[in-house]
Design a protein that fits this description.
two-stranded antiparallel sheet, 14 helices, 2 strands
Length: 367
């Protein structure tokens, strides 16, 4: 005879809370550990292989020098330390920052638009950045020296986002549908502008534009990290401050207004942060797709839709994804550096299709 044990309602809620708390702790600890491992492995792999233990020793030695302690040691290969600190670590660090920024921007976009298909490109920031960068390349503009292309990309992304917002605003308010449709139209115009610029460019400039639009972390310097990191960290912290309001916005515009949320102001802040995060991310490494679309979906499946957990977990997962993708980009083919945007699209496209099918099947349909 089977005996059924029932859990009293007053004890079920605390039990569920403990289980959820444990799951959250496991997910964050797992993501943090995965990021550390990914950084150590990615920094050590390349034409000059350095074991992860020696990579860690090199980091500890530099940290020890800062505080006057004798920690770690240099890699056994004579050029190992230079390879790590002059070439590998800047690239890995920019991958961490860019991945975190794109994933956070994607999570915010999906929260603001209330649409799981939303991503930073919806408001035209990526297309605008690409058009501005392509114009600088094609017409040989060098007003800011080596910073010209990143500067044009950053300003182009911000300007396009501002244009989308102003064109979709009517009567002091914006609607999600109008924002999406305006973004689609502006994206189409920007892509047409890209085609025109490439048509007018010479062969060398055209090849440079194509490579830039496919995305790459090749040639990253510490100066680039120093410019991008503060913008992305500020954007991620700003997104965290909006997490509670984004949760309330998920109830719908009317319900959010009833509980005191200024929906229009929240939308402006969120779109501004998305524009800053995405424009800063793509300005030095080109357009990298699918990170902002896929990563928030995965985290939402595990942790739920609450932005207080979704945003930081997406940032960690985005950093892990881009570091690993960059590792494959420069090691899959010997003596070649594949465009990272191509890899994320090749892997992210089929994976996202599988995710859509799975979500549709488990939810019983979209309608």
């Amino acid at each position: 005879m089977t005996t059924l044990t029932r859990v009293a309602p007053q004890t079920a809620a605390p039990l569920r809370a403990r289980v959820r708390g444990s799951r959250v702790a496991v997910v964050f600890a797992g993501l943090a550990a995965a990021l550390v491992v990914a950084v150590l492995v990615a920094a050590g792999r390349g034409q000059l292989d350095i074991p992860p233990g020696e990579v860690l020793d090199s980091i500890l030695r530099r940290l020890g020098d800062l505080v006057g302690w004798n920690l770690g040691s240099v890699p056994t290969h004579p050029q190992g330390d230079n390879a790590l600190w002059e070439v590998r670590f800047p690239r890995v660090a920019l991958g961490v920052v860019v991945g975190a920024a794109l994933a956070t921007a994607g999570a915010m976009m999906q929260g603001v638009f209330g649409n799981p298909l939303a991503e930073p490109g919806v408001v035209g920031v990526s297309a605008g950045a690409a058009l501005a960068a392509a114009s600088a390349i094609a017409f040989g503009i060098t007003v800011a020296g080596i910073w010209t292309i990143p500067l044009f990309a950053f300003l182009g992304g911000l300007a396009t986002t501002l244009l989308v917002y102003l064109m979709s605003r009517d009567g002091g308010r914006t609607e999600v549908v109008t924002l999406v449709l305006t973004g689609i139209a502006v994206n189409a115009v920007a892509q047409a502008g890209m085609a025109l610029v490439m048509f007018m460019a010479d062969t060398q400039a055209r090849e440079q534009i194509v490579f830039w639009t496919l995305g790459s972390l090749n040639g990253t310097r510490w100066q680039y990290v120093g410019v991008v990191a503060p913008l992305c960290v500020a954007g991620i912290l700003g997104a965290m401050l909006l997490s509670r309001q984004l949760d309330l916005l998920s109830l719908g515009d009317r319900a959010a207004r009833h509980v005191g949320v200024d929906v229009e102001r929240l939308r402006i802040k969120a779109i501004f942060l998305v524009a800053v995060l995405t424009a800063a991310a793509v300005s030095f490494c080109g357009v990298i797709g699918f990170v902002g679309l896929v990563v928030p979906h995965l985290i939402r499946i595990v942790l739920g839709p609450g932005h207080r957990l979704l945003l930081p977990a997406s940032a960690l997962a985005g950093a892990v994804l881009l570091v690993v993708a960059d590792l494959f980009a420069r090691t899959l083919v010997e003596y070649a550096d594949l465009p990272i945007g191509m890899l994320t699209a090749l892997v992210g496209g089929p994976f996202f299709f599988w995710l859509l099918r799975r979500t549709r099947r488990t939810a019983g349909g979209w309608a």
